[in-house]
Amino acid sequence: MSKLYESLLPQKKAVDSSWERLVNNREREWGLYGHDIGLHPLNLAIGGLIPTKVTTIGARSGTGKTALLTAIAEGASRVLNGRRAELCVFSWEMQPDYLVDRYICSKTGLTLRELNQGAKLIREEYFNSKLKDAYKIAQKLPAIYQTHSTDISHIRAVAKEFVEVCDQKSEIEGVEILPVLVVDYLNMAQFEAMGLRTYGIGDFMNGFKQLCNELRAAGIIFAQILRSTDKENRIPDRADFADSSAIENASDNLIVLYRPEYHKVDTVLDPQTGLDVDSANKLLIKILKGRDYGIGEVLTSCDIKHFRFWDLNQEWSFPYWDLYKNKAFWMEHFGFRDHME
């Protein structure tokens, strides 16, 4: 029998793996299936950050997609149910220190204008207490950055070393550490082969998905969508991703963000209630593809000036992650069914 044939996975092993995951989910403490992605409605919509799953998030500039990294990084740092996450961010659009600025604004309530242009006006007492405390917290966020646009081969090499470091930290800390690969953003990637950009995007996305499968890492890709959504003033859809079929095929979750206030639209439909509500400080998250949990829409609160995102039914500072430890929360979320307690 050839080594090639021996490398194939028998059905029994696939069944055993599924069974072990089911038993583990029954025996572990109450918690989110994946790890906290930093936004409660998104956790419920896609299950959080899950090994091997690639989530592509598309939006126009100014909508807040890169700002989500502030919430994702903070979610990654939480140890929940014996697990946390570590981010390797391929930050090609924005330098890491500017991402830190956004996190500081989120923690302190300052705007970027106040943090930068108004820095000399900040009271000494505030500077030495709240601001310094926020920077101390920011230092501990579990993120590492690669800042120069590159191709999938370089990402593969960096990611393999990154996962090895995560494994070492996991042994030292005594918690499971989920490696998360973040690309910000796809449209700036370099391609190994010359030719049509569509083929380059397809090769990059397929390579990234295979990499996440191989390393059992979660993947997040940010992507720009076409300018036509600005002109036509509508909610983006699949076709608004440049080279959309290649991106959709390799993504487990395909999501678009739409901030109606940014487009000067006064109201937006709340998918949960079916009612039009004031669009101020609202963000619509539309799941166009969900390989595991299906499609859908959810409206959330956002404060773009301070880079904050939160559930409509909660305050920004509400510790939503505590809900995941509560059986009653999950019973309400799923509804009472015959096969459930």
Shape: globular
The CATH superfamily bears the name: P-loop containing nucleotide triphosphate hydrolases
Strand order of the largest sheet: 3-2-4-5-1-6-9-10-11
CATH class (first level) name: Alpha Beta
Distance between the termini: 49 Å
Indicate the CATH topology: Rossmann fold
Q: If you compute it from the alpha carbons, what radius of gyration comes out, rounded to the nearest whole angstrom?
A: 21 Å
Tally of structural domains: 1
- Unreliable stretches (pLDDT < 50, length at least 5) are none
Helix share, percent: 25-40%
Q: What average pLDDT do the residues reach?
A: 93
What distinguishing features does this structure have?
single chain; 341 residues; alpha/beta; Rossmann fold; two-stranded antiparallel sheet; 11 strands; 21% strand
Structure description:
It is a single chain. The chain is built from 12 helices and 11 strands. The chain has a 9-stranded mixed β-sheet, with helices on both faces. It has a two-stranded antiparallel sheet with strand order 7-8. The longest helix is centred in the middle third of the chain and has 22 residues, at 152-173. It starts with a helix and ends in a 7-residue tail after the last helix. It has one domain (53-334): Rossmann fold (3-Layer(aba) Sandwich), CATH 3.40.50.300. The protein is an alpha/beta fold. α5 crosses α7 (124-139), α8 packs parallel to α9 and α9 packs parallel to α11 (244-250).
